[in-house]
Amino acid sequence: MNARAQTQEQQEQERRVRESNGHLVIIGGHEDRKHDMEILSRFVELSGGKDARIVVISAASSVADQMWEMYDKAFGELGVRERVHLHLASRQCANDREHIKDIVDATGIFMTGGDQKRLLAIIGGTALDSAMHTALKLRGACIGGTSAGASAMSGHMLATGRVELHPEKGSVSLGAGLGFLHKVVIDQHFSERQRLSRLLSVVAQNPYLQGIGIDEDTALIVERGVGIEVLGEGAVTIVDGRHMSTNIAEISDRETPELIDVRLHLLPAGSKYRLPDGDDVAVEHRIPQSLLEFLENVTKRNPLS
Asked: What is the mean pLDDT of residues 10-26?
C-alpha cells in the first residue's frame, strides 16, 4: 500500500471513530489473548482498527508492568501500531497533564484486571476520569475493561462480596464506580466462580439495580443509543429484582432472604438486541418489556458526569 492510500485509510478509520456513538466492551475476565482473540479483535475494530490509538490503564493491578507486557503483545499482534501504557501509581498521576493528553488522543481505552477498589482509589473523580467520559460520550471512543476493569464501569460497583450457596443479607457491599452505566452492577468470572448467589444478594439489598453477570472470555458490548451484543465463549446473565417481593428488611445479617418474582435473562454469545428505530413496532414486540427496559437503560446516552 502506498503512502497516499495509507493516509486515506487512516483518515477513514478516524472518521468512523469520530462518527461512532461510543462503545463499551465489558469483559468477564480471562479473555483469549493468544489465539483468535475474538474479543480483543472487536475492541480494536471498534477503536479504529490498525490505526487505533490504544491506551492501556493498568492501575487496578499490583503487577502493572506484567499486565502491560501481556496486552502490549496482544494488541501488537492484532496490528495496532500506537499503543500507550498508563502506569498510574497515584491520584497525582491521574491528574497529570501528559496522562490526560494520552486519553484525549486515544480512540480506545482499555482497563486491565486486578482490584476494582484500587482502580477507583487511583482514578475515581480525577481529571483522567473526566477525560474518559469525554472520550466516550463526545468523541465516540471505545472503552474496554476486563475483570476488575469491567466491574468499575458502572456507577455502583461491587466492592466486596463472599460467594455463598444462597444469597445472604450483608454479604456484599457496593462502592462508587466510574459511571459509564447507571442503575446496574456488574460481576465478572460469573459462571466459573458460581457468583449467581452473590449477584442475587446485591439485587436483594439494592432492588433498583439490575445485576449483570459476565462469564470468562465473554463480553457485553454496548453501543450507546443503539443496542447490545454478547461476544465470546460464555453468556451474560441479567438479574432483575425491581418488581420482586422480599423480606430482607426484616431479617438479620447472614440470613437468607425470601425473594419472589425475581426475573432472570440469560443471553448467550451471539445474542444481539437493538433499540426499536422510530416506528419499528415489529422489533419492539420481539423484545420482552423487561429486557427492553434493560436495553434502554444500558444504551442510554448518560450526561458527562
From this structure: 71
216 among known catalytic residues: yes
What's the pTM value of the predicted model, to 2 decimals? Answer: 0.91
Is 84 buried (19+), middle (13-18) or exposed (0-12) by CB count in 10 A?
Answer: middle
- At residue 297, what is the residue type? N
What is the per-residue pLDDT for 15? 56
Whether 147 is catalytic is: yes
Q: What is the DSSP letter of 51?
A: G
Using the predicted structure, report yes or no on whether residue 12 has a pLDDT greater than 70.
no
Question: Residue 208: which of 177, 188, 185 has the closest Cα?
Answer: 185
pLDDT band at 165 (very low <50, low <70, confident <90, very high): confident
Which residues on adjacent β-strands are paired with residue 218?
Answer: 232
Active site residue 189: yes
Residue 69 has which C-alpha cell?
Answer: 507486557
Contact call for residues 32 and 85 (beta carbons, < 8 A):
no
Check 189, 197, 201, 229 and give the catalytic one: 189
Q: Out of 20, 47, 58, 147, which one is annotated catalytic?
A: 147
Q: In the chain, which residue ranges form alpha helices assigned H by DSSP?
A: 3-18, 38-47, 64-77, 91-94, 97-105, 116-123, 127-137, 148-151, 196-205, 281-286, 289-298
Contact 79, 131 (CB under 8 A): no
Residue type, 135: A
Selected catalytic residue, list 85, 133, 171, 216: 216
